[in-house]
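Minutes, project check-in
Item: structure for the 255-residue chain
Input as provided by the requester:
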Amino acid sequence: MRIISYNVNGIRAAIKKGFYDWLKTNPADVICLQETKATEADVDIKELEALGFEHHGFSANKKGYSGVAIFSKIKPTAVKKGNGFEMSDFEGRVIEMQFGDIKLINAYFPSGTSGDERQTYKYQWLDEMYAYVEEVKKKNPKIILCGDFNIAHEAIDIHDPKGNKNTTGFLPEERDWMTKFLNAGWIDTFRVFHPEPHRYSWWSQRFPSVRLNNKGWRIDYITVTESLRNDLMDAEIFPDIKHSDHCPIYVELKH
């Protein structure tokens, strides 16, 4: 089972930059997207279907904002849109698929970059999501939770930890949440295979040289519950795939 998580920063823009051509190279069996900024009606899905993908999206009520989707070549046994929290569902932030005994949760965590109000909501969302996945875990011990977490966890996950210590996405409270989450029985799959530094999944678009010089953040994750640890085969980040200010991240499980 090969899974990719990818914040596309607008699926229509990504398609114009060759996203569908990349899908033709068969990078994974399941593609989890965040920040689609579109409804299913906005996108030509014939190509997706021709490639063998079943597709499900969950859009925000606000046009051109947020949104998540999953494209899958493996037929899910169930699909669920939303996590039951009003604001999160209004913003189209969570979609799930069930594959037998494995539950896949694809989430777009709020960013907090637009001011104090959104930062406050980010903390609320993190608390709600933590409670939600802990509850889900009671019935589904095998969970994959992936997405744009909008948090760089450790100093190794950001190019300039000192300069960004007061920046949303690397604030102590956010990093503490990530530590609490991982300590509750979740595995950061990339770090199982890659302890090395300078591996990032997002680069600011404000300065084109930032990506060129790899001054990035690792804020995208594929995490799994402890019960899937022995199924992990590989994990990777693909910085050379450029349809977005993020790049795709990858995990392979023997399941």
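Outcome recorded: The radius of gyration is 17 Å.
No further action items on this chain.
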